[in-house]
């Protein structure tokens, strides 16, 4: 299910990262072997009441000079407008209203995105409330006082945030068309791939605006079937600062991945696979989306009979956390193998939504246990009672055991491999929950 995206925007030092940490603290789902997820916290999963959303912090590095603060804030605001369902505009009661706040408020107001004006550092309502009223002058509604440092007012703020989320029945879930996000570093060929695919279809249906976003999704018909390509390449504004550019491309990827069924992770064959690719791919992995690794610009490298093998080894090494993803070697320039992407997309979606009968799963588990004894600790041995699939997208299994502590990651991995041997599940991660039953 696709989760709404909430973005925090605000001047340096108003407390964006403090708010981010306060909301994400303890709720961040950390996939230990995914690169980048723990290191820089650009995005996190947050849940409030029965709603879940992805929180992103648009603020990156400290600007070196005062005059670039405004331009940087504008870029952050634009990213938020492009990618978020709800924007938290954070201000600071201690510094009061400053000119840059008003300028950014103007920009946000024009965007038609829901914006919540949050006034931070209200550590004492008694003392600071009179100063909060000044923020009405921004003209973006009622200021919500919070203290991120002492976690005051956050619940009321979250109540407001979730009011703007689409209700279940209004969401894009109804849409049966496969939704495909093309992600990857700048210049790997994302737009070229979309353009080539567009060029090869007979009928161009229409460019439809995303129902919840300003981003333009591209509808492509292949073999009489419609696919929606979610554009992340759209951003042509280039930040001069490398760290900012990377941050923004991650935020864009997060938002596109969130809305997609299948993700095409594009890598530049000429440049080779890099750590930055791993970070971006990690987003799709962690979100449990279907993934196809697309090595583009295959026309531009010198090849011999070993090239593909060597490439595969390198991709598998750097993206070792997603061995289940298929790799395709394509060229947006010549069109080589691009058409095959559609079959692959269909297959990955089928795997994402595949359900395995409980009886069959338990047979596999029993056989697996017989072949390799479960781990034990201090004389107590792990017993596996029962396995069942509880959901899809990604396929998710619950295993009932005698003692959770005894269920090592490596044994879960072993069972996962057995399930994959039987059913493939190519292109999708599998999730396992371990429950105790005495
Ligand atoms: P960012 O640059 O917007 O990400 O701001 P930070 O989160 O780094 O916070 C800037 C400074 O404000 C830090 O020294 C924080 O400790 C402080 N700060 C953040 N939130 C609060 C708050 O609610 N109350 C007070 N008194 N200080 C805060
Ligand atoms: P994006 O930033 O990921 O959308 O990348 P673009 O689609 O703008 O492509 C970046 C550059 O790579 C452009 O100069 C393209 O012409 C080039 N490019 C894209 N695909 C291919 C390809 O398959 N082969 C070669 N040789 N160049 C490509």
From TrEMBL:
InterPro entries: AAA+_ATPase, G_ENGA, GTP-bd, GTPase_Der, KH_dom-like, KH_dom-like_a/b, P-loop_NTPase, Small_GTP-bd. GTP 1 binds at residues 10-17, 57-61, 120-123. GO terms for molecular function: GTP binding; ribosome binding. One of its GO terms (biological process) is ribosome biogenesis. GTP 2 binds at residues 184-191, 231-235, 296-299. Residues 4-169, 178-353 form the EngA-type G domain. Keywords: GTP-binding, Nucleotide-binding, Repeat, Ribosome biogenesis. GTPase that plays an essential role in the late steps of ribosome biogenesis. Belongs to the TRAFAC class TrmE-Era-EngA-EngB-Septin-like GTPase superfamily. EngA (Der) GTPase family. HAMAP family: GTPase_Der (MF_00195). Associates with the 50S ribosomal subunit. PANTHER family: GTPASE DER. This is GTPase Der. The gene is der.
């Amino acid at each position: 299910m696709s989760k709404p995206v909430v973005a925090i925007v605000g001047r340096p030092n108003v407390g964006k990262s403090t708010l981010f940490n306060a909301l994400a603290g303890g709720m961040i789902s950390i996939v230990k072997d995914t690169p980048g997820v723990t290191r820089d916290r650009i995005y996190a999963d947050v849940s409030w009441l029965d709603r879940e959303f992805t929180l992103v912090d648009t603020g990156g590095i400290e600007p070196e000079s005062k005059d670039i603060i405004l331009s940087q804030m504008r870029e952050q605001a634009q990213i938020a407008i492009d990618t978020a369902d709800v924007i938290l505009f954070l201000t600071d009661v201690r510094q009061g209203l400053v000119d840059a706040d008003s300028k950014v408020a103007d920009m946000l107001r024009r965007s038609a995105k829901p914006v919540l004006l949050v006034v931070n550092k209200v550590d004492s309502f008694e003392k600071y409330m009179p100063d909060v009223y000044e923020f009405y002058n921004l003209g973006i509604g009622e200021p919500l006082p919070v203290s991120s440092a002492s976690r005051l007012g956050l619940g009321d703020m979250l109540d407001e945030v979730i009011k703007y989320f689409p209700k279940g029945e209004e969401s894009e879930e109804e849409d049966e068309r496969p939704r495909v996000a093309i992600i990857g570093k700048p210049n790997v060929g994302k737009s070229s791939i979309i353009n080539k695919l567009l060029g090869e279809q007979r009928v161009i249906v229409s460019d439809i605006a995303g129902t919840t976003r300003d981003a333009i999704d591209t509808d492509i018909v292949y073999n009489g079937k419609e696919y929606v390509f979610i554009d992340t390449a759209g951003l042509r504004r280039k930040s001069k600062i490398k760290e900012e550019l990377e941050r923004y491309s991650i935020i864009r990827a997060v938002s596109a991945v969130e809305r997609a069924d299948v993700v095409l992770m594009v890598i530049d064959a000429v440049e080779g696979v890099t750590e930055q690719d791993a970070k971006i791919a990690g987003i799709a992995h962690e979100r449990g989306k279907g993934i196809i690794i697309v090595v583009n610009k295959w026309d531009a490298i010198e090849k011999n009979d070993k090239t593909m093998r060597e490439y595969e080894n390198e991709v598998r090494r750097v993206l070792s956390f997603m061995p289940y993803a298929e790799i395709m070697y394509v060229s947006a320039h010549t069109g080589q193998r691009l058409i095959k992407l559609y079959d692959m997309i269909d297959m990955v979606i089928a795997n994402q939504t595949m359900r395995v009968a409980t009886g069959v799963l338990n047979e596999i588990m029993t056989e697996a246990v017989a072949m390799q004894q479960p781990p034990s600790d201090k004389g107590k041995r792990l017993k596996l009672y029962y396995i069942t699939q509880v959901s899809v997208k990604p396929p998710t299994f619950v295993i009932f055991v005698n003692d959770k502590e005894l269920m090592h990651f490596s044994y879960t991995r072993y069972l996962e491999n057995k399930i994959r041997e039987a059913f493939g599940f190519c292109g999708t991660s599998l999730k396992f929950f371990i429950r105790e039953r005495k």
